[in-house]
Amino acid sequence: MKILIGGGTGFIGGALTRLLRSKGHEVGHISRRPGAGITWAELAAKGLPSCDAVVNLSGENVLNPLRRWNSEFKEEVVLSRVNPTRALREAIVSAKTPPRVWLLVSGVGYYGPSLTEEYDEDSPGGDSDFFARLVRDWEEAARLPQDTAQLVRQAVVRSGVVLGKEGGAIKQMIWPFWLGLGGAIGSGRQPFPWVHLDDMSGILAHALENESVRGVLNGVAPSVSTNGEFCAALAASLGRPAMLPMPSFVLEAMLGPERAAMLLEGQRVIPKRTLESGYKFRYPQLRAALQNIVS
Ligand SMILES: NC(=O)c1ccc[n+]([C@@H]2O[C@H](COP(=O)([O-])OP(=O)(O)OC[C@H]3O[C@@H](n4cnc5c(N)ncnc54)[C@H](OP(=O)(O)O)[C@@H]3O)[C@@H](O)[C@H]2O)c1
Questions:
Q1: Own/partner pairs, 168-177, CB within 8 angstroms, 24+ separation
Q2: I need a labelling partner for 113 at 20 to 30 A (CA). Which of 48, 51, 175, 265 fits?
Q3: Which residue has the higher pLDDT, 178 or 293?
Q4: What CATH fold (topology level) applies to the domain 2-294?
Q5: Mind listing the pLDDT tens digit for each residue in 234-274?
Q6: Distance CA 66, CA 71 (A)
Q7: Percent of all residues in the chain with a pLDDT value above 90, rounded to a whole number
């Protein structure tokens, strides 16, 4: 297949590109940077290049430690997701020969944070807080009109926290843990929906390659963990103690209360449709996933 990936130069995009190329697919990127693929301006001017599949992974890093959580940055977080998604949807709708499949990666922030509730792909969401509304608007921007939807298969993968060596949460957390300074965040009882990078790219490749996959798939491991369990397992896999919990007020001072809530609260998410669609997880259990990552 010829596959075009918006934001394919990043953490998930790099792993997905390697996996798809190893399977014999041809992969191109859409990027803000000329030379890394076609640019968004070229997409707007010339339309969608001929391809079999389109994926969108673009978005400003919400946990960017260099950016204060203010209205300007919040708008950038939203627009960096919604605008590229809308641009790709419009390019697909206008294409003379549309691709066979259109795939978006959004987030499990769609579901409201809760200590007790369990969510699968059919659970309601999209209105509890800033992140839920962001995912609602992001997925809405991807939705194809009915006539195009009859020609183009569409799927959305709602991702949990992606764990991998090269980036994401582990890259930000590994040094404090390595120095023995890591520990649970807040109470540590909040759910921590996670997925290994190999499974995230595996689920995306599965959705691209299988004609029967459509609609929402949760991109999370089937074993549910809490933040405290995750932090203890990360420390153990590094052979370090995990004794110093991070108090809520410290995180709120560092990240701002709304963004800190992403780590202080969480959602218990089940990949029901993902499993039903036939995807087999390489890393269903947290300890094995972390051992693979830190080894
Ligand atoms: N990583 C996770 O744990 C996780 C969890 C849930 C959901 N997701 C979602 O999955 C997608 C991919 O995640 P990732 O971890 O691979 O992200 P990433 O590496 O931080 O970024 C992906 C790409 O987005 C583009 N980008 C960055 N800032 C942008 C901006 N301000 N405006 C427009 N484009 C921008 C960049 O491409 P160019 O520089 O080439 O333009 C970048 O390579 C994101 O939408 C993210 O929200 C990720």
A1: 168/11, 168/197, 169/63, 170/234, 170/293, 170/294, 172/63, 172/65, 173/234, 174/234, 174/238, 174/294, 177/231, 177/234, 177/235, 177/238, 177/240, 177/242
A2: 175
A3: 293
A4: Rossmann fold (3.40.50)
A5: 999 999 887 778 888 888 887 888 888 888 999 999 999 99
A6: 15
A7: 81
Ligand 1 atom 27: the closest Cα is on which residue?
60
Strand partners, 226: 191
Q: What is the whole-number distance in angstroms between the Cα of residue 108 and the centre of ligand 1?
A: 15
60 lines ligand 1 (CB under 6 A): yes
Is the full-model pTM beyond 0.85?
yes
* Nearest-angstrom CA–CA distance, 230 and 293: 13
Residue 37's pLDDT band (boundaries 50, 70, 90)? very high
Q: Which atom of ligand 1 is nearest to the CA of 76?
A: 31
Could you state, in order of their start, the residue ranges of all structural domains in the chain? 2-294
Ligand 1, residue 83: give the atom nearest the CA.
33
